[in-house]
Structure formats: C-alpha cells, structure tokens
From TrEMBL:
The keyword Transferase applies. InterPro entries: Aminotrans_V_dom (IPR000192), Aminotrans_V_PyrdxlP_BS (IPR020578), Cysteine_dSase (IPR016454), PyrdxlP-dep_Trfase (IPR015424), PyrdxlP-dep_Trfase_major (IPR015421), PyrdxlP-dep_Trfase_small (IPR015422). Keywords: Aminotransferase, Iron, Iron-sulfur, Metal-binding, Pyridoxal phosphate, Transferase. The lineage of its organism: Bacteria, Bacillati, Bacillota, Bacilli, Bacillales. This is Aminotransferase V.
Length: 380
C-alpha cells in the first residue's frame, strides 16, 4: 500500500521506535523519584525538553509535555479563558480551525464566553484586517491555526501576532500541529504566547505533544494533581514517548530545509498530474500553502466511494480530516471557502510525508485518472 495520509498521522521513524524501546526498557524510573533510576529518567526528560526548545527557538522552561495536539489546544484556550475571564469573555478564532480548537470554543460559548469565528477567503485564508475589526475591549484571546489541516493553506499568523503585540493583555494562541517541520514559524518574533504541537504528525509517537507557553504567562491548568510540568500539566510524564518526540525533533533538524523542498516538488508534480483530469477540481490554492497537503473534489462522486476505489488500487488517502471523516457531513472547511455542498461532500485530502517518492506520485496520478473515469461513467 502507498500511504498518502500523512496529515492524519505519519509512520513513526524506525529510530524513534528504537529510542522509545530503549527508554522503556532502560529508563523506567519515575522522573520525580529521588533514587538513581528517577534521576536517570529526569535527565532524559530534561534533555528532551532542551532538544524541543532548541528546535523551536525558545527556553526549555517554556516547553510543557502533553498528550498531543488536542490536549495542548484545550490547555491553551481553556487555560486562558478560565484564568482571564475577569478581564473579558471574548475570544477570536476562525471558521476553519481543527475541531480541537473549534469545538473547544463552542464549549466555552455554552459556558458564557462569546466567540467570533472569522471567515476566510476562497483560498482558505483569514485576513489580518478581519482580526483587527473583530477586536473588542473584552477580547482576551486570539486563536489562529498555522497551516490548515484540510487545505494546507498557511495563515498569516506572523502578521497577526506582530499586530497583536500592541495589546499585551490579549493572548495569542497558534495551533501549529500541521506546520511543524514543513513551514517555518518564528515563535518569538511573531508574538505567540501559546502554541500547540503533536509528535505523530512528524514521524514521532502518538499520544505526546507540546504546549509552548511564553515565560511568565500564567494559565489555569487543565489537569491538577502531582504538579509535574511545573504545575501546568500534572501526571507522571510519558517518558518513552517524550524521548521519541525528542528523536523526531532531532531527525527534523537533520533533514533541514531539504525535506520541505522535496515535498514541494512532489506536490507540484501531483498538481500538474491531477489538474487536467476531467471532473477534478483542485481545492488547495497553488500558492501560500504547506508543501504536503493537496485537497481535491470530484463533484458528483462521493468522497468515500473514491477513497475506497483508490484503496483497491493500493493508495491510502483521507476524506476531510481523519478525526471527522466518519461524520457524514460536508467539510466545514470547504464550506467556509465557498465551494458549495456538492464539492465539499466529495473532497479528498492527499497528504505527503518523508517516505513518499516521485514514482509513487506518478502511480497515484494514473490510478486517480482511472478511478475518476470509471466512477463518472456510472453517473451517466
Ligand atoms: C491542525 C490540527 N490540530 C490539532 C490536531 C489534533 O492533534 P492530536 O491528534 O495530537 O490530538 C490535529 C490532528 O489531526 C490537527 O491537524
């Protein structure tokens, strides 16, 4: 099978698996224990924090390990909302956020907060001017994702963050889960206060993520208990996963800018190959997107039918984002860019990763052409 579903999750790198296995068998102490096994585990934890901080260009004390992107988003948004509700109860976000932000905002609305969900243009991009217009005296948080998980569109988070610097009491959260290792983002220069990451999107293990929290910023912890992670996230640290995450960061560092450029070339090859196919509409814009995501629709053909037809030919892709792909509704993200229900109900996401090759992309184009031709012939 050829795996083109890297935005849903990536295959853990063999070196990540090796590191985790070693951490599990050798460093099984609890980092909070005072004996040598505890100290050993604590050293691994500190090293991992330093590796993550080095990659992100921040201080180790600004890195907090969580169970993944969903938890980091919840911790950031609810943490700010509950801590600063005395100042105001207004939050600004977008219509195209991942459910781990969008549904958190919906939940907060049911608790008395007010949320502005900003629209996006036909390319799936929010405008800085709209953020500016939405600001109110009671705004406490702006949350905008870095790279959209369905379309790949890059959001102007650097510009938004720079503009927000003049409102030090309005905090800025970025869900950077899809951009890491693919699209550079300067956390400090962009005035980002909180940022979410997830290791399984860059060949690390599942169930481990990072919440970056600017030094000195206080938020209400989601999980209280033993006071691990400086009280921001209690619970015995998942050391093997943390070691695996650090390894995944090291591998990203080693691959440098070459890997995003390679992915970009594959994506261009894919676009050139699929665009001329009759009946296909490419929803991902040609510019200003991450190098690994391509969204397309075959209006009139149900996305699920196309997905299984591609699977029969050996290719694994997604309809919408993996977590909402079982819900039988048109994609909220595609509806937001105004493509209409038919297109939004027939969209596929092809997402590339470090294991994919030009040869696989070529094979995919041939298979897609064949699938679309066959399925459209049934419609006639
Ligand atoms: C943009 C975005 N945010 C958050 C998440 C959730 O991350 P996790 O699966 O680690 O909870 C995902 C995963 O698909 C995502 O794409």
């Amino acid at each position: 099978m050829i795996y083109f579903d890297n935005s849903a999750t990536t295959r853990p790198h063999p070196q990540v698996i090796e590191t985790m296995s070693k951490a599990m068998s050798s460093y099984y102490g609890n980092p909070s224990s005072l004996h040598r096994k505890g100290v050993e585990a604590e050293n691994i934890l500190n090293q991992a924090r330093a590796v993550a901080a080095g990659y992100l260009g921040c201080k180790p004390g600004e890195i907090f390990f969580t169970s993944g992107g969903t938890e980091s988003n919840n911790a950031a948004i609810k943490g700010v909302a509950f801590q600063y509700q005395g100042r105001g109860k207004h939050i600004i976000t977008t219509q195209i956020e991942h459910p781990a932000v969008y549904d958190v905002c919906k939940q907060l609305e049911s608790m008395g907060f007010t949320v502005t969900y900003l629209p996006v243009d036909h390319e799936g991009r929010v405008s800085v001017a709209d953020v500016q217009k939405a600001m109110r005296p009671d705004t406490i948080l702006v949350s905008v994702m870095h790279v959209n998980n369905e379309l790949g569109t890059i959001q102007p988070v650097e510009e938004i963050g720079k503009w927000l610097k003049q409102f030090p009491k309005v905090l800025f959260h970025v869900d950077a889960v899809q951009g890491i290792g693919k699209v550079p983002l300067r956390i400090k220069e962009s005035g980002i206060d909180l940022l979410s990451l997830s290791a399984h999107k860059f060949h690390g293990p599942r169930g481990i993520g990072i919440l970056y929290k600017r030094e000195g910023l206080i938020i209400q912890p989601l999980l209280t208990g033993g006071g691990q992670e400086a009280g921001v996230r209690s619970g015995t640290e998942n050391l093997p996963a943390i070691a695996g995450l650090a390894k995944a960061f090291r591998l990203l560092q080693e691959s440098g800018a070459d890997e995003p450029s390679r992915l970009q070339r594959l994506l261009e090859q894919l676009r050139e190959g699929v665009s001329p196919i009759e009946g296909i509409q490419v929803n991902t814009p040609a510019k200003g997107t991450a190098p690994h995501i391509m969204n397309l629709s075959v209006p009139g053909v149900k996305a699920e039918v196309l997905l299984h037809s591609l699977e029969e030919r050996g290719f694994l892709v997604s309809t919408k984002s993996a977590c909402s792909s079982k819900a039988n509704e048109p994609s909220r993200v595609l509806m937001a860019i105004g493509v209409g229900t038919e297109c939004a109900s027939s969209s596929l996401r092809i997402s590339l990763g470090r294991d994919n090759t030009a040869d696989e992309v070529e094979q995919f184009i041939v298979a897609l052409r064949d699938c679309v031709k066959t399925l459209r012939s049934y419609m006639k």
